[in-house]
Amino acid sequence: xxxxxxxxYDYSSEEDGYQIDDESNMDWKAENPNAAPTKHSKHSMxxxxxxxxxxxxxxxxxxxxxxxxxxxxxxxxxxxxxxxSAAGVLLRQYNWSKEALLEDYMGDAEKILKQNGVxxxxxxxxxxxxxxxxxxxxxxICYDETDVKLAMPCGHAFCxxxxxxxxxxxxxxxxxxxxxxxxxxxxxxxxEEEMSKALGDENDLPLxxxxxxxxxxxxxxxxxxxxxxPGVGCDRVxxxxxxxxxxxEGHVATCNACTTSFCLxxxxxxxxxxxxxxxxxxxxxxRNESETANWIIANTKSCPNCVSxxxxxxxxNHMTCQKCKFEFCWICMGxxxxxxxxxxxxxxxxxxxxxxxxxxNDQSDSAKAKKELDxxxxxxxxxxxxxxxxxxxxxxLKETEQKMVQLQESSEDATWSDVxxxxxxxxxxVECRRVLKYTYVFGYYFDTGITMQRDRFEHHQEMLERFTExxxxxxxxxxxxxxxxxxxxxxxxxERFMKNIxxxxxxxxxxx
Length: 512
Fold this sequence. Notes:
The chain is mainly alpha-helical. Helix content is 49%, strand content 7%. It contains 18 helices and 11 strands. α14 packs antiparallel against α16. The longest helix is centred in the last third of the chain and has 34 residues. The N and C termini lie far apart (63 Å).
């Protein structure tokens, strides 16, 4: 590569104040990691200010990551003595992990360079191929004669028109970052060097910019410490400073532009206590069996007392039939009076009973299939119930400000801070419903043989459900009947029980 060509890849290790450091860390300038973006609507800015600060996870624009990408390329250039274009290809193949690249490179450098399509770029083109290409004026693609051809490091050369068509197609198809030499069966990688030469006209600058966007997108998507915000229309990127910081934050990032919270590992909504692998299995299972489950679990249920059809339109599972005034549990359809400490706990119905205590020993295939379906439906019903309750709580949260205004106006001496408790309670309800929803995914995949830990987990689950239902009832009361002290106290209790179950799982469910 000529000195002029290398200027475009001149990524100094001191660029923008970035220092060469362990590649597992994201090296940023010392500034507020969650500073709100400068250009957003008033509503977005207000919401961002209410977003909990994640000191180890920074939300930034994609362009702010370019210096970090260039830093890593410069680091590999310095250590391996290769060109920047070759370093970029190698890092992409190793998901931008310098340590993994160096470990394999030191073991067999020639093998790694050939395997990743940069052997000739690092060692020079084969002399015979270069001589043959120079002697032949015919383009191997269009077979036109030309005096000017653009050669790859592997020695294959093509006319500029064919090169341009090749690059345009690769960019439009989105395969430009992984493109290889146009010559059939040649695996030498095409880099920004060739792209820049083939798209050298001023009219081609947008295409070249698009190619660089694909490069940056590759950096974000293959890096374990970065992920695009999944918020609708949001183009921000969440970046953790290190793996240790990512774990300490529970793998959860909150966008300061659109306020979306998500798991940085899988991109789904926060899903503690279940891990990403089991969540993916659950989602796949629900996709495969949801039609059956939705057919069995109707949107309405019959009152256990008078058989009138009842639609659940609020978040609380304590139901009252408007026709006969019978109070029952939406989950198990049992009498609500039986949901107390004298009957085995407020939410004994949340525990799965496999029927073994009743002497069920049928081991036929049909019996096993029915047992598995019953077990799945047990957990799915409760997952679905909390999912619906979460949707209602989210809807209620959007209406909270209007309710807060009414609450403030109902008392002459009340200030805005005096009614903030209502928003706090509703925000916690949304979070608790989400946690409870995923406790049933966790329970579904939990080892049924570990009885003591399972019982302890279900106890935590039961307590959280009990107090969440109490808080849900209190927050849904009319303004005139709402008691601030009761809501505040119940909010504190619910928060404590939510932290208890998450900590129990996080600590490995240790009984010592």
